[in-house]
Amino acid sequence: MSIGLVWFREDLRIIDNPALYYACNNGGVAAIFIISPTMLKMHDVSQNKIIFMLDGLESLQKSLAKINIHLKIVTVENPENIKKELLEYAKAIQARTLYFNLQYEYNEQKRDDIVKKHFEINGLATKSFHDQCLFEPGTIRTQENKYYQVYTPFKNSCWK
User: Could you give the 3-state DSSP secondary structure of residue 145?
Assistant: First the structure.
């Protein structure tokens, strides 16, 4: 049986979670969450948001345990070491694929691209999923394939 590794980030839930869903449909599952204090400082994350995240992690850990999925929580000071930590854990549990939901912020997209390349170089797959909003950013465009400048036409296009 193949094992999939689900990398949780801001998606601390088991209900309506595409990465978790697809991982569960493809074999055994393990999960990981990486805390990077440096990234939290870079983004000037408030103490309240950190407390909210830690509460969410505790709840997620309990929810995953009920369905026999272990959540490993790791602290990585240097964000550049995230790729290494993910790969080491994937290899340790003999996972073949890393599953995660997309984040659209600039630093997070760069991090994800680095992780994907690192996994590819080491012979492991990654699968990412749209999750946070109704439409992927940039996919709703005018008939001329340009970005909308006015909200109402954008909204009408979304409704279609």
Answer: coil
Return the structure tokens found at 125. Answer: 């797959």
pTM for the model: 0.86
Are the C-beta atoms of 71 and 22 separated by less than 8 Å?
no
Contact 40, 52 (CB under 8 A): no
Q: What is the DSSP letter of 25?
A: T
3-class state of residue 152 by DSSP: helix
User: pLDDT, tens digit, for every residue of 22-70?
Assistant: 999 988 999 999 999 998 998 899 999 999 999 999 999 999 999 999 9
User: What angle do helix axes 106-121 and 82-92 make, rounded to 10 degrees?
Assistant: 40
Distance CA 13, CA 119 (A): 25
Rounded to whole angstroms, how far apart are CA atoms 158 and 89?
A: 40
Reported as a single tens digit per residue, the pLDDT across 115-126 is 999 999 999 999
DSSP 74: E
Residue 47, both tokens: 């103490």
